[in-house]
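testing teh design pipeline on a random one, pls ignore if ur not involved
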């Protein structure tokens, strides 16, 4: 009997080792199937939100390269840089190849299709993110968990994110609509449409995005169009925690409802403009600020 137990233990160990070496496979946001012979152990992240997602599933310690502004959590600041996430000109492909990643996680809108295809031509395994819905953020947590051998952690993070979003949806989405303008930048004046993930945050909170119907995800608009739409709330993002100076420019139109009632606000871009679990935090802030405008109606 002792001998049988010994052989059983050996079998369990061998099966465990075999499972650890087993391949993993998932599809990305473009429908591309990413197949790895084993969970990724050397990853390059090509967007700040990707870096956050990888840390969220417990894979931060295997990220060997990241782009500029990959600054959350603090440990991400120590990862060697491989360029900027925007466009291919500032991406250091040579540096990426030197790092010998077994997985590159990219952002289609930020990195560009040409850069992604070039990396695949060089033999790199590339998983592409392009989240436009809350559910896609949760799915990325699950898929990146699988690709990095952290499936359980990914599932837990995804479930927690879904629960946070559902709580906000149940509380705010059916409340009286609040007409609002979301300002990304001032020169040129830029906003988001209804298909953008931030547009989905606005809808979640019962907001009425005055530029929801525009075709571009991040369109340029003019001041006159904003004034004509007469939003009850103006929310800006800026580049940091501080209230951007250009938000005060709306004081030139004192009859604008948002200005007349003091409903011009700022939400830090990192918790709203990155496609990560922290967008639930940004959504909660958005809902709170829109509720102020709702109560003033």
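output:
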């Amino acid at each position: 009997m002792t001998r049988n137990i010994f052989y059983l233990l050996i079998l369990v160990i061998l099966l465990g080792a075999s499972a650890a070496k087993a391949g993993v496979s998932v599809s990305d946001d473009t429908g591309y199937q990413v197949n790895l012979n084993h969970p990724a152990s050397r990853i390059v992240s090509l967007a700040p939100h990707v870096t956050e997602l990888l840390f969220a599933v417990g894979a931060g310690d295997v990220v060997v390269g990241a782009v500029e502004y990959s600054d959350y959590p603090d440990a991400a600041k120590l990862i060697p840089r491989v360029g900027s996430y925007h466009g291919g000109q500032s991406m250091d492909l040579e540096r990426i190849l030197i790092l010998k990643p077994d997985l590159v996680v990219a952002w289609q809108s930020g990195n560009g299709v040409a850069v992604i295809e070039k990396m695949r031509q060089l033999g790199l395994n590339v998983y592409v993110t392009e989240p436009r819905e809350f559910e896609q953020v949760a799915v990325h947590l699950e898929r990146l968990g699988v690709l990095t051998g952290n499936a359980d952690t990914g599932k837990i993070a995804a479930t927690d994110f879904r629960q946070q979003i559902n709580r906000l949806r149940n509380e705010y989405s059916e409340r009286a609509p609040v007409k609002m303008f979301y300002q990304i930048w001032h020169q040129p004046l830029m906003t988001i449409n209804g298909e953008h993930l931030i547009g989905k945050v606005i809808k979640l909170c019962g907001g009425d995005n005055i530029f929801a119907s525009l075709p571009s995800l991040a369109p340029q608009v003019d001041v006159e169009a904003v004034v004509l739409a007469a939003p009850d709330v103006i929310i800006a993002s800026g580049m940091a925690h501080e209230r951007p100076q250009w938000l005060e420019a709306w004081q030139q139109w004192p009859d604008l409802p948002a200005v007349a009632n003091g409903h011009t606000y700022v939400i830090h871009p990192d918790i709203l403009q990155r496609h990560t679990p922290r967008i639930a935090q940004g959504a909660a802030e958005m809902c709170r600020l829109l509720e102020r405008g709702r109560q003033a109606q």
